[in-house]
Amino acid sequence: MNDYKVSDYGIFNDAVGTAKKLNESLDTSKTEIDDCKNKLNSESVFMGPACDEALKGLDNCCSKIELLYDNFNTISGYLVDTANNYKSGDKEAKVNILSINSDGKLEVSSSSSASGVANFSGSNNEEKMYNYLSSQGFNDAAICGILANINYESGFSTDAVGDGGTSYGICQWHEGRWDNLNSYCEENNLDSSSIEGQGQYLLYELQNSYPGVYDTLKNVPNTSEGAYQAAYKWTTDFEVPENKESQADIRGSSASSTYWEQYGSNN
Fold first, then answer.
1. How confident is the model at residue 236 (pLDDT cuts 50, 70, 90)?
2. Cross-strand partners of 173
3. Which of 63, 121, 162, 230 is the residue whose CA sits 20 to 30 A from 45?
4. Which domains does the chain have, with CATH numbers?
5. How far apart are CA 128 and CA 135, in angstroms?
6. Rounded to whole angstroms, how far apart are CA atoms 36 and 53?
């Protein structure tokens, strides 16, 4: 997203302000219409069937105004979040998208989950994991932290076996976690010995079993320091090797230097 510049941020602030003003106008209109509708309801008993039909039409109009009001609330919230993500790191600005359902209601969803695209392109497993994690909305700092750990655990070999034959794969999933990898891949028609299967299980396990690590990764600054933070958290809370604090420092340093220079320094 090199076409976005810091000088562009002001347009988000203008758009947020415009959306809020529109919300205020719609809110005033909605309140006035509701007042009129309630008044007509109380008077309709004296006015007969014609007034009843008019009230049905008014109810229909009010429901459309409420939908419009809710949609502009969604838009203004989306603009605020996008502006914040945009400023924290260009890639984050593309994570969320607006979509509209069959009822005309706007919704915010993740671009990766909405599209279902899992990009495993690359000439080797390291490149494939970088592209996959990037396609799932992680910034370069978070990805560098993960890649540094995978390198120390397995050297990106999906067939790596360790701990006396009890750990397996790129993350050296141990015993029960290895079983869970196999079960997940079997249920989702994936090959547990492939980078695609292990990469998708990594994200599933991260989101469902390690929400604290996931939250850290989604919020680290897109800087070399952020890469260190991501690697440190991954080591101490996801991999949990022996001497985890000293290992976390080693892997954090690798993430913030070697991997950041390769994948993140251009940011």
1. very high
2. 168
3. 63
4. 6-115 (no CATH), 125-264 (1.10.530.10)
5. 11
6. 15
